[in-house]
Design goal:
Blueprint: E1 6-10, H1 18-27, E2 31-33, H2 34-44, E3 49-52, H3 59-73, E4 87-90, H4 94-107, E5 115-118, H5 124-133, E6 137-140, H6 142-150, E7 161-165, H7 167-172, H8 176-183, E8 193-198, H9 203-212, E9 217-220, E10 231-236, H10 243-254, E11 259-262, H11 266-278, E12 283-286, H12 292-304, E13 309-312, E14 327-330, H13 337-344, E15 354-359, H14 368-375
Parallel strand pairs: 3-8, 3-9, 4-6, 4-7, 5-6, 7-8, 10-15, 11-13, 11-14, 12-13, 14-15
Antiparallel strand pairs: 1-2
Helix pairs in contact: 2-3, 3-4, 13-14
C-alpha cells in the first residue's frame, strides 16, 4: 500500500489483543489507512461509527479489527446457545461477502472464533449445517440469512456486533426492508456495537444509521474528488457501430494484463465476449445469472491470469478486491454516477495506479453530465482516431441453452403459482 493512503498511526499504538495484532502482522499491516486511523479510536472505545471512504482504502480491516477486539474483550453471555452468533456482517453481494470472509479468516486466524459464510445460489444444505453447528461470526447476504432465520435455524438475540458494508448498495438492490427486518430482531442499538461503512453515504443511508445505531460518529475521509487520484480517466465518443472496433483497437494498443470490461446488460455482455473470443482473447463472462460455483471459478481464473479479460455487468462492480487490475473499460457508460465511481474503483486499489476508459456512445452519452456533476470535474476526452479502430474478425458463436417447449394446455401437475425468490 502506498504512503498516499497511510497515516502516521500504527496498529501497535492501540494495544490490541495479541491474537488481533498477530493477524495484522501476518498480513503485513503495520500503519493504518486514514479511515482506520479515524474509525478505530471510536470503535475501540465502544462508540458506533458510520464511515465513508473511497473504495480500496481499508474499510474492511477497520471493522474486522474492531470486531475481533470487542469479541476478545468480552465474555459471551452464559445464556447464549450454540445457534446464536455474536457478530453479524451483512454485505449486498455474494462476491463481497466472500471477500469479507476471506479477509476475516486472514486477520482472525489466531482468535479461535468460528466464522460462517452464508449467501444464495449454492450450498444450501451445507450452509444450513454450518449454522446448526454454531458460529461466532456470521457473514453473508440478507436473502439467504433471512431464509434460515425464518426457519429458526439460528436467532439474533445474542448479537453484540453489527456491521453493514456498502449500505448504499443495499438500497440500490432493494434489500433495505430485509435489513430492517434483521435489525429489529437483534438487541437494541445501545446494547451492541454497530458499524456502517460505504464508499458513499447518502441521506437515506444516514437515516438508517440514526434509526438503528446508537448515536453513531460520522467519519468521512474527504478528498478533492470522489474517485482515487491515481486513476487516469479518459472518455471516447464512438458511434454504436464503432464500439467493438474501438475496444479491440484499445486492447491491441495497451496490451493490458488484467482488464475488467463493464456493460449494462447481460445481452451486451454476451455480445462483447463473443467478439473478443472470436478475435483470440481469452475472456471470462460474469453476469447475475451465472451459477455461483461457475462465478467463483471464473473469478479465480481472472485472478490467476488464465483469463486476462473479464466482461461483467454491475454484479462485479462492488466489493471485489482483485489485485493488479490495470484497466477498467466502461464499454457502456453506466446510468448511475455512483456506479461509475464503483466500477472504476476496481483499479488503482490500495494506492496502485490504473486506467479507466469509458465509451460515451449514442445510447449512453446522455448519462455523462450527471456523472461529471457527481465527480465535480469533466473527464478528459480523446478522439476516436481512425487508426485506433480495428478491423475485427467475426464473433465466436454463443452457445445458448435450448428453450423449453411451451407446455400444452392442462399439462403438468396442478399447483400454486411459483414466484421468484430473490437471493443475494
Amino acid at each position: 500500500m502506498t504512503t498516499q493512503l497511510l497515516s502516521d498511526i500504527r496498529f501497535s499504538q492501540f494495544e490490541l489483543p495479541s491474537p488481533v495484532q498477530q493477524g495484522l502482522d501476518d498480513a503485513g499491516f503495520s500503519r493504518c489507512t486514514l479511515i482506520q486511523a479515524r474509525a478505530l479510536p471510536n470503535l475501540l472505545a465502544g462508540r458506533d461509527v458510520a464511515g465513508q471512504a473511497q473504495t480500496g482504502t481499508g474499510k474492511t480491516a477497520a471493522f474486522l479489527v474492531a470486531m475481533y477486539t470487542q469479541l476478545l474483550s468480552t465474555e459471551a453471555p452464559a445464556t447464549r446457545t450454540v445457534t446464536q452468533p455474536r457478530a453479524l456482517i451483512l454485505a449486498p453481494t455474494r462476491e463481497l461477502a466472500i471477500q469479507i470472509h476471506k479477509d476475516a479468516v486472514q486477520l482472525g486466524r489466531h482468535t479461535g472464533f468460528e466464522l460462517g459464510l452464508i449467501y444464495g445460489g449454492t450450498d444450501y444444505v451445507k450452509q444450513r449445517g454450518t449454522l446448526t453447528a454454531g458460529v461466532d461470526v456470521l457473514i453473508g447476504t440478507p436473502g439467504r440469512i433471512i431464509d434460515y432465520f425464518k426457519q429458526k435455524v439460528f436467532d439474533l438475540r445474542a448479537i453484540e456486533i453489527l456491521v453493514l458494508d456498502e449500505a448504499d448498495r443495499m438500497f440500490d438492490l432493494g434489500f433495505i426492508k430485509d435489513i430492517r427486518f434483521l435489525l429489529r430482531r437483534m438487541p437494541k442499538p445501545e446494547e451492541r456495537l454497530s458499524m456502517l461503512f460505504s464508499a458513499t453515504l447518502s441521506y437515506r443511508v444516514m437515516e438508517l444509521a440514526y434509526e438503528h445505531m446508537d448515536n453513531p460518529e460520522l467519519i468521512k475521509i474527504e478528498s478533492d474528488q470522489v474517485t482515487a487520484d491515481n486513476v487516469r480517466q479518459i472518455i471516447y465518443y464512438p458511434s454504436n457501430a464503432d464500439k467493438i472496433p474501438l475496444l479491440i483497437g484499445l486492447l491491441r494498443r495497451h496490451r493490458p494484463e488484467r482488464t475488467m470490461i463493464f456493460v449494462n446488460t447481460k445481452h451486451v455482455a454476451e455480445k462483447v465476449a463473443a467478439w473478443l473470443t472470436g478475435n483470440d482473447y481469452k475472456v471470462a463472462l460474469l453476469s447475475g445469472d451465472v451459477p455461483q460455483r461457475k462465478r467463483q471459478t471464473l473469478l479465480q481464473g481472472f485472478l490467476s491470469g488464465e483469463y486476462p479479460l473479464l466482461v461483467a455487468t454491475d454484479v462485479a462492480s462492488r466489493g471485489l478486491h482483485i489485485p493488479a487490475v490495470s484497466h477498467i473499460i466502461n464499454f457502456d457508460l453506466p446510468e448511475s454516477a455512483e456506479d461509475y465511481v464503483h466500477r472504476i474503483g476496481r483499479t488503482a486499489r490500495a494506492g496502485a495506479e490504473g486506467d479507466a476508459i469509458s465509451f460515451a456512445c449514442e445510447d449512453y452519452a446522455v448519462h455523462l453530465p450527471d456523472i461529471e456533476e457527481f465527480l465535480n470535474y469533466k473527464i478528459p476526452a480523446a478522439d476516436v482516431e481512425p487508426e485506433l479502430l480495428a478491423v475485427p474478425r467475426s464473433p465466436a458463436k454463443i452457445e445458448r441453452k435450448p428453450r423449453l417447449a411451451p407446455a400444452k394446455a392442462g399439462a403438468g401437475r396442478p399447483g400454486r403459482r411459483r414466484t421468484a425468490r430473490r437471493t443475494a
